[in-house]
């Protein structure tokens, strides 16, 4: 969905853009190809390996920052940027993170149970499982993994750690497989638990909820917000945010208000949600669940009752 996402940004040669999830630079390279000599791209990623990968791009138009997109507004301000023409967010774990066994994201490799996107800070998945109680583990697996056997899995983990720490992906996957009584066709029983722990450890949904209003604030009028999500929990947050910003508050019809006094939408939804095509799914099966949503910031209206003046 790389080309679709970059095309949705409608890159202007002299524009300023944000790639909030640099990864290994696919989107950033495509944006740079469309920028002119006066364009600018600010890229963020909390994964030190992604930041290191950015060093391979020798381009003065690119500024790479080791930071989570949850701090987008601060990063933009520190970069001396007042407003941007577009923000691109590709949410969730990247393919390189999943494919590198030592990171602990995947049950396909036996590795330390880390799961942190930013390996320089924060609690590992192993540290969480070593101290959390059955109730807390259950809530994490149920809420972030939508796993119906969350309680059974949590009990199995707590019982197992009384004998030895649950410290590797192989140990955790084996425990989950013992606890899950039925299997979904084509899916390993450990899939939902690994997803849940990764989301929890990295505060992925909380970071997403933080970045969306910040992206709105830093966009110029007419600027584009493009978000790619990979599972229903993420997409639900994006969908609700965009719809809320695109629809004025529902007020009682009998209020004595003129149309000019009604709240104006801040976003315009651009097209329908886009899903990966058959060719992309064949090349990258993980793209099967990808959903891209696009919105455009609208011109704010003058707030007549604001003593300080200005625009909403």
Please identify the top-level CATH class of the largest domain. Answer: Alpha Beta
Largest sheet properties: 8 strands, mixed
In CATH, the topology of the largest domain is named Rossmann fold
CATH architecture of the largest domain: 3-Layer(aba) Sandwich
Shape: globular
3D architecture notes:
By secondary structure, this protein is an alpha/beta fold. The protein folds into 2 domains: 2-90 and 204-297, Rossmann fold, CATH 3.40.50.150; 100-199, Putative methyltransferase TM0872, insert domain (DNA polymerase, domain 1, Orthogonal Bundle), CATH 1.10.150. It contains 13 helices and 8 strands. The chain has helices spanning 2-9, 26-34, 48-54, 72-78, 95-99, 125-131, 134-145, 150-161, 169-179, 191-202, 204-218, 232-246, 278-283; strands at residues 16-19, 40-45, 62-66, 84-90, 219-229, 267-269, 274-275, 291-297. Helix 7 packs across helix 10 (191-202). The radius of gyration is 22 Å and the shape is globular. Residues 300-312 have low confidence and may be disordered. S-adenosyl-L-methionine binds at residues 25-27, 45, 69, 90, 97. Keywords: Cytoplasm, Methyltransferase, rRNA processing, S-adenosyl-L-methionine, Transferase.
What key attributes describe this structure?
13 helices, alpha/beta, single chain, 312 residues, eight-stranded mixed beta sheet, Rossmann fold, 8 strands, DNA polymerase, domain 1, disordered C terminus
Write the layout of secondary structure elements.
Elements lengths: L1 H8 L6 E4 L6 H9 L5 E6 L2 H7 L7 E5 L5 H7 L5 E7 L4 H5 L25 H7 L2 H12 L4 H12 L7 H11 L11 H12 L1 H15 E11 L2 H15 L20 E3 L4 E2 L2 H6 L7 E7 L15
Parallel strand pairs: 1-2, 1-4, 2-3, 4-5
Antiparallel strand pairs: 5-8, 6-8, 7-8
Catalytic activity: cytidine(1402) in 16S rRNA + S-adenosyl-L-methionine = N(4)-methylcytidine(1402) in 16S rRNA + S-adenosyl-L-homocysteine + H(+)
EC number: 2.1.1.199
GO molecular function: rRNA (cytosine-N4-)-methyltransferase activity
């Amino acid at each position: 969905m790389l080309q679709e996402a970059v095309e949705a940004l409608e890159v202007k040669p002299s524009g300023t853009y944000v790639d909030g999830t640099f990864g290994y630079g696919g989107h950033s390279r495509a944006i740079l190809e469309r920028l002119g000599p006066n364009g600018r791209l600010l890229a963020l990623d909390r994964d030190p390996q992604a930041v290191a990968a950015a060093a391979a791009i020798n381009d003065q138009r690119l500024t790479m920052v080791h930071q989570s997109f949850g701090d987008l507004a601060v990063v933009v301000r520190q970069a001396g940027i007042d407003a941007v023409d577009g923000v691109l967010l590709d949410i969730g774990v990247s393919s390189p993170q999943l494919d590198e066994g030592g990171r602990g994201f995947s049950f396909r490799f036996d590795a330390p149970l880390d799961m942190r996107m930013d390996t320089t800070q924060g609690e590992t998945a192993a540290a969480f499982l070593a101290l959390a109680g059955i109730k807390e583990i259950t809530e994490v697996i149920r809420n972030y993994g939508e796993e119906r056997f969350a309680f059974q899995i949590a009990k199995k983990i707590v019982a197992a750690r009384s004998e030895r720490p649950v410290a590797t992906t192989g140990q955790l996957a084996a425990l989950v497989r013992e606890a899950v009584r039925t299997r979904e066709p084509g899916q390993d029983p450990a899939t939902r638990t690994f997803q849940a722990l990764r989301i929890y450890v990295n505060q992925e949904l909380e970071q997403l909820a933080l970045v969306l209003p910040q992206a709105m604030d830093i966009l110029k009028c007419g600027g584009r917000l493009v978000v790619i999500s990979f599972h229903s929990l993420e997409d639900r947050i994006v969908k609700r945010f965009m719809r809320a910003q695109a629809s004025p508050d529902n007020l009682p019809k009998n209020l004595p208000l003129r149309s000019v006094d009604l709240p104006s939408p801040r976003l315009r939804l651009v097209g329908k949600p886009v899903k990966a095509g058959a060719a992309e799914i064949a090349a990258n099966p993980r793209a099967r669940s990808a959903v891209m949503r696009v919105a455009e910031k609208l011109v704010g209206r003058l707030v007549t009752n604001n003593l300080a003046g200005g625009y909403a």
